[in-house]
Amino acid sequence: MPKNCPSCRSTIWMKESETRHCTRCGHGWISTYDSPCRCPACGTYKWEEAPTVHTCSKCRHEWNAKRSTPPKRCPSCRSTTWMRDAEVRPEHGGDESKDGYDRRIGREDVEYVIRSYNSGLSCTKISILSGISFSIIYEIISDECSDMPRV
After folding, report:
1. What is the pLDDT of residue 117?
2. Model-level pTM?
3. How many CB atoms lie within 10 A of CB 82?
4. Which residues contact 21 (CB under 8 A, 6 or more apart)?
5. Closest to 74 (Cα-Cα) out of 102, 101, 55, 52
6. 114 is in which domain, residue-wise?
7. DSSP code string of the chain
8. Does residue 150 form part of some domain?
9. Which residues pair with 19 in a beta bridge?
10. Number of independent structural domains in the chain
11. Alpha-carbon separation of residue 133 from 64, 98, 123, 127 (angstroms)
């Protein structure tokens, strides 16, 4: 048996090959290596590992993680609090409050907003300091306080 292919002179012509599939991009290729280093289509070194999917709690954008640490901002809306709200939100049924803002932010955030408002801060200032949208803060203050909210 010759070492090289008679037609193209390749040295890997008699090795067994297997079809590999990248879990990141879905590309399939035939490889003669037992464990290829990276996917030839997307270039990832983690082609055998399932990707980590992140979801922004503000804009609901979903993306695959490129690193082991979560990003600081959502790539779509650029929110820095995209993950904090996602951890508190019940995804499948769970205990849901009758208030719509309790499903969007955690109860501790609602209490923080009420404490801040009672200490004299306006809705705008609370929104800037906490990163919670103004409309949610205004809704919380309208529901919890008897007077007209300070904007």
Report:
1. 87
2. 0.39
3. 24
4. 27, 28
5. 55
6. 100-144
7. --SS-TTT--SSTTS--EEEE-TTT--EEEESSSS-SS-TTT--S-TTSPPPEEE-TTT--EEE-SSSSPPSS-TTT--S-HHHHHHHS-SSS-S--SSHHHHHS-HHHHHHHHHHHHTT--HHHHHHHH---HHHHHHHHHHH-SSPPP-
8. no
9. 30
10. 3
11. 25, 19, 10, 6
Average pLDDT over residues 47-74: 82
Q: Token pair of 123, please?
A: 């809705």
Q: Does residue 94 form part of some domain?
A: no
Check pLDDT > 80 for residue 86: no
Is there a single domain that holds both residue 44 and residue 9?
yes
Cross-strand partners of 55:
62
Distance CA 38, CA 47 (A): 6
Q: Are residues 6 and 47 in the same domain?
A: yes
Residue 87 pLDDT exceeds 60: no
pLDDT digits (tens, 9 = 90+) for 91-124: 333 444 444 555 567 778 888 888 888 888 888 8
Tokens of 42: 């997307």
d(CA 51, CA 111): 36
